Amino acid sequence: MSLGILGTKLGMTQIFDSETGLAIPVTVVQAGPCTVTQVKTQTTDGYNAVQVGYKEVKEKALSQPELGHLKKAQVSSPLRHLQEYRIDDPSQYQLGQSFKADIFENGQLVDVSGTSIGRGFTGYQKRHNFRRGPMSHGSKNHRLPGSTGAGTTPGRVYPGKRMAGRSGGTKVTTRKLAVVRVDSDRDLLLIKGCVPGKPGTLLSIAPANIVGKK
Amino acid sequence: MNAEQIIRSIESEQLKDDLPIIHVGDTIRVGVRISEGGKERVQPYEGTVIAKRHGGLNETITVRRIFQNVGVERVFLLHSPRVATIKIIRRGKVRRAKLYYLRDRIGKATRIKQRFDRSL
Lengths: 214, 120
Known about the structure:
The complex is a heterodimer.
Chain A: E1 5-16, E2 23-31, E3 34-40, H1 42-45, E4 49-56, H2 64-72, E5 79-86, E6 98-99, E7 109-115, E8 120-122, H3 124-128, E9 165-167, E10 171-183, E11 188-192, E12 202-207
Antiparallel strand pairs in A: 1-2, 1-12, 2-11, 3-4, 3-6, 4-5, 7-10, 7-12, 8-9, 10-11
Chain B: H1 3-12, E1 27-36, E2 39-53, E3 60-67, E4 70-77, E5 83-90
Antiparallel strand pairs in B: 1-2, 1-5, 2-3, 3-4
């Protein structure tokens, strides 16, 4: 229930911990600058939220309805991506207000969500971690799924049976990653561990949602 | 700045610029920072470089020595702050990039010829 930021994954590297000297794997994320494009309140919309925009683009890249919406928000240049964050008290945010990566601090836990790497049409082993059959001793069952259910009764395959198909390319959230460093000059966040997607993917970074804590 | 330049710039802050030029086959002495009981000290480790891997910030060397008749190999991340010092003791003349054949040898057969055309 607090403000997050949109960003772009740039890639991974490692940095050395200043105390222990251990190498920490980090993902470098270009986070923000973001602009508040809409403030939703209980009275006007039925819930409290802030809509933020990210990534400046040319005017011709957006449609007229999108441009109209941004014009209402008094945004200086058109923005490609819009995202809402539910917020307890939206009154402290004004339209057109800009914020950067420094809303986070070192050591803070964050949830990072983005689109995972698309793997196309994949088989059972890759998509659902099925075990494979024996590769030798006369076996012809190498990467087959095995049984998909009982026979005449029920006479059909139950819905939800795990099968081959499109894998990846879905929204994935990686939770409770630590922010190792905040570079407010260049709007960079260094997040410990890996985040969804390839370099260049759009990410939403928000303070960690801890179960049992409000 | 594009993504690659940004990552390079983050890495370049941590690169050591005072590392000696290490070749495979050299005998070196590495000072390793270890902390025991809240105190920090530098422990020397001496041996032959049998492999170099990766480049840039990830560069590592594998140093082999025979300790109490047991072969010991340690991999050092060269740019890590845990590696305090590196001193080259002897330059070796070898014809391989990886000296894994030394693992199968003992005693006199593990000797590496010294070369004198490279400075210490």
